[in-house]
Design goal:
- The chain has helices at residues 15-18, 22-36, 55-67, 83-90, 106-136, 145-172, 178-187, 201-211, and strands at residues 2-10, 38-47, 70-73, 96-98.
- The chain is of the alpha/beta class.
- Strands 2-1-3-4 form a 4-stranded parallel sheet, with helices on both faces.
- Helix 6 packs across helix 8 (201-211).
- It is rod-shaped and about 90 Å long.
Length: 213
């Protein structure tokens, strides 16, 4: 029977949401061992490791070398998210088995890691761009974001209720289109919710939609 040592990496805060919790990883490894005739010698668990240091991974590798066993992980990203680190790992004398990609060779593991890193980089750049655009629009970000968003919503609702009587007067004068209302509000110097912007048809629509009018 072939022998292996399992390596699990989890974050106590995020493991449940990610679907890569300890139990899920253990289940994947146990199933692989059962169907591929592996004897699991040990299970090494890393909690809250950083990209720079995964001390327990190094321990697992040393165990594999001393016991002539394979290193087994549930998914490739459990080894880490740095393609250079994974490249060094696959160059070691230890055989690495990824249970969700059992036919992966050292070469394909390297390629998959490089592709995953590229995807993460693109996602990171897109996210940074979106956050920068949100800040430019005046959106408040951070740990108090939800609380402030609720306050902003309440303030916007109150503002809409204040403006609505004026819009009703404009409608009574025959100004009923969104663009017409926006133009008249601008002519009268009525400030928008942000205070320093012009009224547009879309702005009027959003205000009326907020009030369901």
């Amino acid at each position: 029977m072939k022998e292996a040592i399992a390596y699990y990496r989890v974050s106590t805060q995020r493991q449940g949401r990610s679907g890569l919790g300890l139990e899920a990883q253990q289940s994947a490894v146990a199933s692989y061992c059962q169907f591929h005739d592996y004897d699991l010698l040990d299970e090494v668990i890393e909690i809250k490791s950083t990209r720079k240091q995964q001390s327990r991974l190094l321990e697992a590798l040393e165990q594999c070398k001393s016991m002539n066993a394979s290193l087994m992980v549930a998914r490739l990203d459990r080894l880490g998210r740095d393609v250079e680190k994974i490249a060094r790992l696959i160059k070691s004398e230890v055989e690495i088995i990824v249970t969700d990609n059992p036919h992966a060779t050292r070469f394909t593991i390297h390629i998959l890691a490089a592709v995953a890193e590229e995807q993460r980089q693109r996602i990171s750049e897109t996210t940074k761009g979106a956050l920068a655009a949100a800040r430019k629009r005046g959106v408040v970000l951070g740990k108090n974001g939800k609380r402030l968003a609720k306050q902003n919503k309440q303030a916007a609702n109150a503002f809409a209720r204040q403006i609505f009587p004026l819009i009703q007067k404009l409608r009574s004068r025959g100004i009923s289109t969104l663009r017409g209302i926006a133009d008249e509000l601008n002519l009268q110097g009525v400030p928008t919710f942000r205070g320093n912007a012009q009224w547009h048809a879309s702005t009027v629509f959003a205000l009326l939609h907020r009030l369901n009018k």
